[in-house]
Amino acid sequence: MNELAYRVTETAWAAVSGATVETDNVVFTGSGSLPSTFPVTDLASASIAAAGLGVAELVYQAHGQRPLVSVDRRLSSLWFQTSLRPVGWTLPSPWDPIAGDYRTRDGWIRLHTNAPHHRAAAEQVLGTSGDRAAVATAVAQWDKTELETAVVQEGGCAAEMRSLAEWQEHPQGRAIAKEPLAHLSSTGRGAPPNWRVPIERPLEGVRVLDLTRVLAGPVATRFLAGYGATVLRIDPPDWDEPGVVPEVTLGKRCARLNLREAGDRARFEALLSQADVLLHGYRSDALEGLGLGLNLRRRLAPGLVDVCLDAYGWSGPWITRRGFDSLVQMSAGIADAGMRWRGADKPVPLPVQALDHATGYLMAAAAICGLARRLTDGIGIAARFSLARTAKLLVDQRRNGESHELAPESASDRSPVVEVTQWGDARRIAAPLQIAGAPMRWDIPARGLGSALPDWSDR
Question: Which of 217, 229, 405, 441 could bridge to 206 as Cys pair (CB 3.0-4.6 Å)?
Answer without folding.
Answer: 229
